[in-house]
Design a protein that fits this description.
The chain is of the alpha/beta class. It folds into three domains: 169 residues, P-loop containing nucleotide triphosphate hydrolases (Rossmann fold), CATH 3.40.50; 145 residues, Rossmann fold; 164 residues, no CATH class. Helices cover 36% and strands 17% of the residues. It contains 19 helices and 21 strands. The strands form five sheets. The chain has an eight-stranded mixed β-sheet, with helices on both faces. The longest helix has 23 residues. The N terminus and C terminus are likely disordered.
Length: 587
């Protein structure tokens, strides 16, 4: 069956062809003009961007003739939120392992409150909480970057953390997975995200919510490793802090033997691997044995597809009784898993191949044996015997104490800095803040590398700083070829006419269900472009008028992806005992 899908075209301000042409090798392909290929190598471009602007000495502090204000002084971020500071908040930390009931108890308090907000790290979690509250006859709005579902009479909101409103006053607020904001820990090898991919980029959103939400009661749910830092940060706010500690509600048993072959796979198993390619190889290996069918979950799947795959796996009435997944299962999905099987305890994190951290192992392993599920006892093991010692030691170890929280200057600070230095583009402004920000010992500047790549693009366009900032903080995957070019086309068209019609950028074409994982990846990238359009349309409604068209096309992408996942049998299987598997590092 064929579906209508949009196809990127036109030419960017940099001479980049936007045509995506279907051919024998690819469903969608860009064609670069030769003179522009070097420009889109973002890593090279951003490293040399300063040379383009010259090497003038800039007044980083704003202490020159135009201002006496030190814009780079970020030592007191709690003062950025005067509404919250006028309250003496009661802050309750609910800390414990996965499957300990900490979020459940916080949500019970939210249900009883006269008004409130839930802030989660993922759209999946925001969806789940909104559904739960409305089912409990507590009218609740759903607000994420890509959707706004308002319920009549609602005094409660379920939002992704970036959408937290720091100008409203609530009776009760929850920030879930609070440790996702905090990346720096005692051990050098643990200076990484704890539970969520990209938290070094998104951490400042959680810190903003922690400092800025004005609620009588603020409930923080997460890992015990966050307690000392949160207590220290809140000393200057005058808030009362209480810590509630939880124990796991159901047993988690680390097994002493590995899973040696496909014949050892059983209903309720989840095989965890960290490569898209290996996810599909393992899926095919298991299914070829003829005993099980597999659902799959990984980060770049659209949220709607992840939810559908999880629902299918949880449904005991169908044949999809095994899950093959990445660490994307660690948050946002309720899964009826009996046993977690690690294919490896190493992953490529975008920079290097490394061992999983203690926190990552505990987060993933803890999903097995969810309380009151059909599997009351969770089990965890590995494919390879040599990985078992690290697995067992990690499960016995406490998570390393978190030392610093992510921080980033507000738009107001960036705007005032720009007024003091009107010749600087947003890229240079971000660079100056990163290099010269003054911070207290509790904070680090969040990783803004991808923001700076986006800023390098929009600085070439005749846009106001506010518009540039909006594009830069949008959820674009700037390192994805198709997503990055869709982003550039949206920004270019907006700079020219202030109206971006989807049909002027994307033209109707007919595609079938993807035939290979490569074609699937390209379709996922198209979904990201459409998702970006929807995000922009919620903020610039008059300028991005085709939200319904984009949403419809996203639905088509979801259907095509689902059909691929149901029909895929195209990858050669690999034996479970293969040592070659352990050498595969990247997606």
């Amino acid at each position: 069956m064929a579906y209508s899908l949009l196809r990127i075209r036109k030419v960017s301000p940099f001479g980049i062809s936007r045509v995506l042409q279907a051919d024998k090798a690819s469903l969608w392909r860009f064609h670069l003009e030769p003179e522009c290929a070097q420009f889109l190598r973002f890593g090279v471009f951003t490293r040399n961007y300063g040379k383009i602007l010259g090497s003038s000495n800039y007044d980083f502090t704003g202490s020159g003739p135009s201002s006496s204000f030190d814009f780079t002084d970020l030592t007191c971020p709690h003062t950025w939120y005067p509404i919250a500071r006028r309250k003496k908040r009661k802050v309750i930390l609910h800390v414990g392992p996965t499957n300990s009931g900490k979020t459940y108890n916080a949500l019970k308090q939210l249900e009883r409150s006269s008004s409130g907000v839930y802030c989660g790290p993922l759209r999946l979690l925001a969806w789940e909480v909104a559904k739960r509250l409305n089912k409990a006859n507590v009218p609740c709005d759903l607000i994420t970057g890509q959707e706004k579902d308002l319920v009549e009479g609602a005094n409660h909101k379920s939002v992704t953390v970036e959408m937290a409103d720091v100008t409203s006053v609530y009776d009760c607020a929850i920030i879930d997975e609070i440790q996702a904001s905090l990346a720096f820990t005692l051990a050098e090898e643990e200076i990484r995200q704890l539970t969520m991919v990209g938290c070094k980029q998104r951490g400042f959103s959680f810190t903003r919510a922690l400092l800025g939400i004005a609620a009588n009661e603020l409930h923080l749910c997460g890992d015990p490793a966050v307690v000392p830092l949160v207590e220290d940060i809140l000393k200057v706010t005058g808030d009362d802090v209480e810590v509630l500690t939880y124990e796991r509600l159901s047993p988690l048993v680390p097994l002493k033997v590995p899973v040696r072959s496909v014949s050892d796979i059983k209903t309720g198993d989840c095989l965890v691997t960290f490569s898209r390619k290996d996810i599909y190889r393992h899926k095919n290996t298991i299914e070829k044995a003829g005993k099980h069918l597999c659902s799959v979950v990984y980060g770049s799947l659209p949220p709607e597809t992840r939810t559908a795959q999880a629902t299918r796996f949880n449904d005991a009435t169908n044949d999809f009784d095994v899950l093959v997944a990445s660490d994307a299962i660690g948050m946002g999905l309720n899964l009826n898993i009996s046993r977690i099987i690690f294919s490896t305890l190493e992953k490529f994190d975008g920079t290097e191949t490394r061992d999983l951290t203690v926190s990552e192992i505990k987060q993933i392993a803890g999903i097995a044996g969810r309380f009151r599920s059909q599997f009351p006892v969770g089990e965890v093991t590995c494919l390879h015997k040599e990985d078992l010692p690290l697995l067992h030691s990690s499960l016995k170890s406490p998570s390393p104490i978190i030392e610093r929280a992510g921080l980033f200057p507000t738009y107001d600070l960036l705007s005032r800095y720009s007024q003091a230095h009107p010749k600087l583009g947003l890229y240079k402004i971000l660079e100056h803040f990163v290099e010269n920000a003054k911070l207290s010992s509790n904070y680090f500047i969040s990783n803004v590398e991808d923001m700076m790549k986006a800023a390098a693009l929009v600085d070439e366009l005749p846009l106001k700083l506010q518009d540039k900032y909006l594009f830069v903080v949008s959820p674009v995957d700037i390192n994805d070829e198709i997503s990055g070019r869709g982003f550039a086309q949206f920004a270019q068209n907006y700079s020219k006419t202030r109206v971006v019609k989807l049909r002027e950028i994307l033209s109707d074409d007919t595609v079938k269900v993807p035939r290979t994982p490569t074609e699937l990846k390209e379709l996922e990238s198209i979904h990201k472009v459409l998702d970006l359009y929807v995000w922009l349309s919620l903020r610039l409604e008059d300028s991005f008028p085709d939200r319904e068209v984009a949403a419809s096309q996203k639905s088509i992408c979801n259907v095509l992806i689902e059909q691929f996942l149901e029909a895929n049998r195209l990858i050669s299987p690999i034996p479970f005992s293969s040592k070659k598997l352990r050498s595969r590092r990247k997606f």
